[in-house]
Amino acid sequence: MATDAQILANRLNALKSTGPRTPQGKAIVSQNPVKLGLLAQRDVIASESRADFDLYRQQLLDELSPISPMESMLAERIITLSWRLKRICRFQNQAIDTLNADITSSPLRKLTQSFFPKTPGQLSDSSADNLPLGRLAVKDFSNSRVLDRLLMYERRLESSLYKTILEFQRLNITRKLKAEGF
Predict the structure, then answer these.
(1) CA–CA distance, 13 with 21 (Å, rounded to integer)
(2) Quick one: which H or E segment has residue 67?
(3) Contact 91/150 with Cβ under 8 angstroms?
(4) d(Cα 182, Cα 178) in Å, to the nearest integer?
(5) What count of other Cβ atoms lies within 10 Å of the Cβ of residue 11?
(6) Is residue 79 very low, low, confident or very high in pLDDT (cuts 50, 70, 90)?
(7) Which residues of 160-169 are buried (b: 16+ CB within 10 A; e: fewer)?
(8) Alpha-carbon distance 164 to 171, whole Å?
(9) Rounded CA gap, 172 and 78, in Å?
(10) Which of 77, 95, 76, 87 shows the shortest CA–CA distance to 136?
(11) Lowest mean pLDDT among 6-10, 117-121, 151-155
């Protein structure tokens, strides 16, 4: 529990903070809520290809063939959730590789490994640098149960995706039954 003096000092210090002043600083700060991109407001984050997303979106829209505005809204939700589910899989894989690379990069481990021949699946130091999403996840979660947290996000996304798919199917079936006169 903070004392009255600490609360007052905190409030006085907060008055001194003016936030970013330059356009570059404001642009950087505007991306703070994006973080991992798992809860991002945008569909495509910087490490993803907009063209890949657009192709994926079009393929799903072609398959779902929404007709009504509600079906269109649910189809867009299915696209977004399934894209984020694909993203979480990349995060998990890269986080595991990052954690593994961090373990294998200790000096004692390197000395021990130097006595053995390299195996085909073993990560090299240069390939460990190609794990930006994994490093971001490990850093953001401060190495604290990073895989548990990513699994929690995956479960939430799956649950929401499956509920949305069921609602889309329910609307689609209802529309078809009404068209047939039932």
Answers:
(1) 18
(2) none
(3) yes
(4) 5
(5) 9
(6) very high
(7) bbeebbeebe
(8) 11
(9) 14
(10) 95
(11) 117-121
